Amino acid sequence: MTTTVPLRGPGRRSYRRGGLMRDQYIWGYLCILPNVLGLLIFTVGPLIASFIMIFLHWEVITPPTPAGLDNLRELINDPLFFKALYNTAYVTLLSVPLGLALSLLLAMALNQDIRGIRLYRVVFFIPSLTPVVANAILWLWIFNPTYGLANGLLGLVGIPPQTWLYNAGEAKIALVLSNMWSIGGSIIIFLAGLQGIPTALYEAADIDGVTWWSRFRYITLPMLSPVIFFNLIIGLINTMQSGFTITFLFSKAGFNQTGAGPDNSLLLLVLYLYNKGFQDFEMGYAALLAWVLFLIILVLTAVNFRVAKSWVYYEMS
Amino acid sequence: MANLPASKSTATSGQAVWWRSRAGRERLTHVVLHIVLLALGVTFLLPLLWLLSTSLKQSGSELSYPPQWIPNPVEWGNYKTALVDLQPTLLYLRNTIIIAGGVTVGDLLAASLAAYGYARLRFPGRNVLFMGTLATLMLPGMVTLVPTFILMRYLHWIDTYLPLIVPSWFGGNAFSIFLLRQFFLTIPFELDEAARIDGASPLRIWWSVILPLSGPALVTVAIFDVLNSWNDFLGPLIYINSPQNFTLALGLGQFQLAHQQTLWNYMMAASAAMIVPVIVLFFFAQRYFMRGIVTTGLAGR
Q1: Closest Cα of chain A to B171: distance in Å?
Q2: Is the Cβ–Cβ distance between B53 and B259 less than 8 Å?
Q3: Phi, psi (deg, nearest 5) at residue A56
Q4: Is B231 near chain A, with CB under 8 Å?
Q5: Does some domain include residue A279?
Q6: Which of A31, A203, A218 would best serve as a mutation to test chain B binding (most B beta carbons within 10 A)?
Q7: CB contact at 8 A, B18 and A117
Q8: Are residues A159 and A234 in the same domain?
Q9: Residue A271's domain spans which residues?
Q10: How many A×B Cβ pairs under 8 Å?
Q11: Which pTM was predicted?
Q12: Contacts of A60 in chain B (CB under 8 A)
């Protein structure tokens, strides 16, 4: 996008008379001044600072000292970092596709004209309103190995109780299940997308008598692909940063004070970053972890944008 | 589409079965949909029902296996114990309201002013700066967390509400700016022109023409600001130390930490007390929620 083409703006005519144009420039800069200052102080500044901090030892109470590449060296020899990386990848790769598929299917079901549809929509949206702390505590209780609801439901179909968060093999599955409960927002976005598809396309398909699958494959999917792409990107960014509260509460209130679940199976990058920065006060190392997370998200997003060209369909208007 | 399943099958079978007819098929689809939605809907609601059920159980009776759905006896007193005796909830509520209020006022002013600039005034670099603001949406908050903390510490703002409030006064919420800009673009530009001919300054136009016409968008922004402050856990966790400054979310988290996975009935009562206001707000302001989510793709957290 070039800077000279206004997205939409007042016509040129109104600036012709002398000085008005420059006047408007000044007013324009004045209006966005707080925003630009905020951008510099709270985003660009910290971004640069955190990059510089990668090369510092800084324990907050003592002045920073240069560290050269110490933090980087520590990182590549840090088994906990690779554990956290693996856990984050695991949860993201499971949560994001599963969440996309489930919310798309639900949105399609909720887009039908049947009785009580408004009530159904509310039902699926309400869980995503739960504040994150309440959400975390509720799921800690549901996955309680002795009295939890999860085991109670499994018991109904004859499956023996599981230890969930206390079991290295199941802990991340439990986390993914709890993520699936909050897909309400993504359902709403899909629903809005579905309602934007011209009904004429489906009517034409009906006249041709195509199957349900063809309607889905050749009309719904292509027409919805920009929305799917949007939800994919947002889902990736959110999921890579999610799970902090539940793993934080669990690791501190659970069975040990330092680890995050059995065999650190719940140590996500965000939790490790918090622990390093705000408990061990290794600010330089925490900044490095933040940048690793940032670069991963950046690369994933860039790759997705590249791949998107082959499957996302934008209608020319 | 070479094969036409509907017509072909009736042709071969030669008789009209009710579910082969168009109306019959539609009815069948509806029945199947109802069954699927009902089953999934109940599954989605189970955790909340479980939360309510646990919150009303007598201490000790929440610890039973298999789980009991109907509390016996129903212990309404749990809410008083959880919210009054065990935690200074009113104090936390007051703190949360102060923060939410500060954030909302700041965001409404700063974001709408910036959005006005981006939507209706022309100046060199406008689009670049707007794109820069939008780009912060893609930036994980975790990246700037550590240096921002050090900045706040340097300013001696730790254990105050300033780190949570001040960024919003500097247009720190790109979602709000984006949402308001999109809305401002739909207001006819002739109104600005007319006001300018009458001698109104752009600032005056923002305040007296644009803002009064943008009620729905401003309400949407305000609702999401209040929700974010209500829900935020990480911010207060990092910046607030003294218990008398805790927010509801931080208080609830510390309550859970202090009791190490016990007192589940009180824990659920306190959680329910945090959830219910949000659900009530949702029922009163449903269309603003939908507008906010659909316009910005803000998935609620």
Answers
A1: 4
A2: no
A3: -125, 150
A4: yes
A5: yes
A6: A31
A7: no
A8: yes
A9: 72-311
A10: 333
A11: 0.86
A12: 150, 153
